[in-house]
Write a structure and sequence with these properties.
four-stranded antiparallel beta sheet, alpha+beta, about 200 residues, Methylamine Dehydrogenase, Chain H, globular
């Protein structure tokens, strides 16, 4: 009987210790959760953009702070470039760089060693062809614009898109609208054709 009693007492002691350990563990977890909840900062998801020339030698990108970076190919190192942009596009030869900032202002730069030049107009997204002759863009109202190089003038094109991309030769233009519909156009003088989705 005494042995049974001793076993029961030991079992109760061990059970009490277990309960206390569980309580302390739960308490510490609660404190940690409260700490992280009250110290959590509402941060927007990062928004990064990278664009590369046709030969892969000229890589341009912007980070979540709109800072601009350049890299000479896969084995190069990132170099910070002056200015701030939200989206960037580089021609196939790497010499013509176009971009837009948070105010929808448009900028052009002749290669890495050039200087940013502000271009007339307002766009939210921009795309440039091989030698910089064909520039396409869309604005905040989803209106589409075309420009023949840096010295050209913006021409409004029919249709509405939220994003646009032009091939190296400038003849093949693709885009999507706010409903995620996909459209194709054969150059500036072509007509928009709706394509099947993914």
């Amino acid at each position: 009987m005494k042995g049974d009693c001793d076993g029961t007492v030991v079992s109760r002691i061990l059970f009490d210790i277990f309960i206390k350990v569980c309580f302390v563990h739960t308490f510490l977890l609660t404190i940690l959760l409260l700490f992280f909840c009250f110290n959590y900062k509402d941060v927007k998801p990062t928004s990064k953009w990278v664009c590369v020339s046709a030969d892969g030698q000229h890589v341009w990108g912007v980070n979540e702070n709109d800072e601009i970076y350049y890299r000479f190919g896969k084995d190069g190192k990132w170099e910070k470039i002056d200015g701030r942009l939200t989206q960037i596009s580089v021609s196939a030869d790497g010499q013509h760089v176009w971009g837009v900032n948070e105010n929808d202002e448009i900028y052009y730069r002749f290669g890495k060693n050039g200087k940013w030049e502000k271009i007339d107009g307002r766009l939210t997204h921009i795309s440039v062809s091989d030698f910089g002759q064909h520039v396409w863009g869309v604005n905040e109202n989803d209106e589409i614009y075309y420009r023949f190089g840096k010295d050209g003038k913006w021409e409004k094109i029919d249709g509405r898109l939220t994003q646009i991309s032009v091939s190296a030769d400038g003849q093949h233009v693709w885009g999507v609208n706010k409903d995620d519909d996909i459209f194709y156009r054969f150059g500036k003088n072509g007509k928009w054709e709706k394509k099947d989705g993914i």
